[in-house]
Design a protein that fits this description.
The chain is of the alpha/beta class. It contains 21 helices and 15 strands. It has a 5-stranded parallel sheet, with helices on both faces. It has a 3-stranded mixed sheet with strand order 5-4-13. The chain is globular and about 65 Å long.
């Protein structure tokens, strides 16, 4: 099949191969600045917004995508070359592919290239919402101190170079300062990251920074800026070269960076927007007064479940999440973890069929067409576990409940951090704390408790004798017998008690 480069000029050529924007993109005005234009944003918020732009009366809600980090230059250049267009490929459970060319990103900026342009765009009067996917680690939160980490060298840079920032906090501060000086309305700053109370988190971290960087701005932010919480959900694995080639060969779409995802999607949003918002509810989002029950369920079950499968699967030598969940022992372990340790601490989930939700997660994880890479799921685990698993551990310890399964996962992570699977193959460890993790993993071979001394990850968990005992037992067993036997034994031990 003949192929054509994906751009505005060739868009009409793809109408037989994919759904294409039926609205006039040149007539769309930017009302949202989004920071972090990776795969998840493009499978989620940008897709919801694209679908909304197909409805009358929504042309003021186009997106300006900001690539914040030097690392993001490739995605910026790709979107620039493709006029902001990209293909979203939904991999259905039966293997069929649903393809949509998404057109909601109508502007794009590369922050390291032109910081002033990003600040000016965020401060523009047309901008009503600034949304974020900056990953769990991007919030600069220290788990041990429960405070903003001013020791971060990038934060120190922003304090010393306010007009040429490198972090989201530096950019937001300068943009909000400009809005105040120009007597403009405030904005909503909306996190779309997997952080519990993500709106509260960005609010608290930003205000911590502003109190030092621009203290006169604090009162204005309190009066003019809102920080709606949200819960986001759509499994979006890294795009592979196979995905890119298949799209070109089978559909004639030469897209340098399409996005692949599962069919399921969910977006639950606190309705608290300072300057108006899109009617995302018309395309499937839910606006609620309290996001907490939804996000707690999702973070503690789906995100934690991903980490469980990733860590245990990596040690066994699996490459993808579906391989791990189709291992009967690991699948049983995950089900027991969700039922015995997570479910009792979730509290009241009114209107949620929890049993059905947990069952659906196993199906979603097992989608053999998604092929979500385990090294992607295990990346930045040091930022993920304090959000996904530690709250469950702490809640169970408070109620004198079970932590044996969670302790097993932490022990497995300590062994994973040595850098090899159980077949002797090297593991690709992508983590901001990779060196610290590796050093503590080595020390743990002599004293397992040493791994728990990473306070920025575990806080004071090492002070719990109950947890340390369970963790130490699992650590010794895994090193001696391997993950497979230990998982089977632990499953049987627990099942025999039920």
């Amino acid at each position: 099949m003949a192929s054509y480069k994906l751009n505005s000029e060739n868009l009409s050529k793809f109408s037989g191969s994919a759904a294409i924007p039926a609205y006039d993109r040149s007539d769309v005005k930017v009302g949202i600045v989004h920071v972090g234009i990776g795969g998840f944003h493009r499978a989620h918020e940008a897709y919801y917004t694209d679908q909304l732009l197909h409805k009358e009366g929504n042309k003021d809600w186009g997106i300006c995508g900001v690539a914040l980090l030097d690392f993001d230059q490739k995605i910026y250049q790709t979107l620039k070359d493709q006029d902001g267009l990209y293909t979203l490929i939904v991999k259905e459970l039966d293997g069929t592919l649903t393809k949509t060319i998404v057109g909601s990103i109508v502007e794009y900026l590369f922050a390291p290239e032109n910081p002033a342009a990003v600040i000016d765009k965020m401060a523009h009067q047309d901008i009503k919402i600034i949304t974020l996917t900056i990953t769990e680690g991007g919030y600069n939160y220290n788990e041990a101190t429960k405070k903003f980490d001013f020791a971060n060298p990038l934060i120190q840079h922003d304090l010393e170079n306010p007009t040429a920032p490198k972090t989201i906090f530096g950019y937001l501060t300068q943009a909000l300062k400009a809005r105040k000086e120009q007597h403009l309305k405030g904005v909503a700053i909306q996190s779309c990251d997997n952080v519990q109370g993500n709106g509260h988190m960005i609010q608290n971290m930003l205000l911590s920074y502003v109190e030092k960087a621009a203290p006169s701005l604090v009162e204005w932010i309190h009066a003019n800026v809102t920080f709606p919480n949200s819960m986001v959900d759509r499994i979006t694995p890294a795009t592979s070269l196979v995905d890119i080639s298949a799209l070109k060969e089978n559909s004639g779409i030469d897209d340098a960076w399409p996005v692949v995802c599962e069919p399921f999607k969910q977006w639950v949003i606190e309705d608290d927007f300072a300057a108006g918002r899109p009617a995302w509810e018309n395309v499937g989002a839910q606006f609620v007064s309290d996001v907490v029950p939804y996000e707690k369920m999702k973070l503690s079950l789906l995100n934690a479940g991903h980490s469980v499968l990733g860590i245990l699967g990596a040690l066994k030598g699996y490459a993808t999440i579906d391989e791990a969940v189709h291992d009967p022992a690991i699948s049983q372990f995950l089900k027991l973890y969700m039922d015995i340790e997570v479910t009792p601490v979730l509290g009241n989930l009114e209107g949620v069929d929890l049993k059905s939700y947990k069952h659906s997660l196993i199906q979603r994880f097992g989608n053999i067409y998604i092929k979500d890479q385990i090294d992607r799921i295990c990346s930045e685990t040091s930022a993920k576990l304090p959000i996904f698993i530690l709250p469950t551990i702490n809640a169970q310890l408070k109620e004198s409940g079970s932590v044996k399964l969670a302790a097993f996962v932490i022990a497995a992570w300590a062994i994973y951090s040595l850098g090899f699977d159980e077949n002797g193959n090297p593991l690709v460890i992508k983590d901001a704390l990779a060196e610290v993790l590796h050093q503590k993993a080595i020390e743990a071979k002599n004293e397992p408790k040493e791994f728990l001394s990473i306070e920025s990850v575990f806080g004071d968990l090492k002070k719990s004798e109950v947890f340390v005992d369970a963790y130490r037992e699992s650590y010794d067993d895994i090193l001696k017998h391997g993950v497979e036997k230990c998982v089977l034994d632990l499953n049987n031990e627990i099942l025999n008690k039920i």
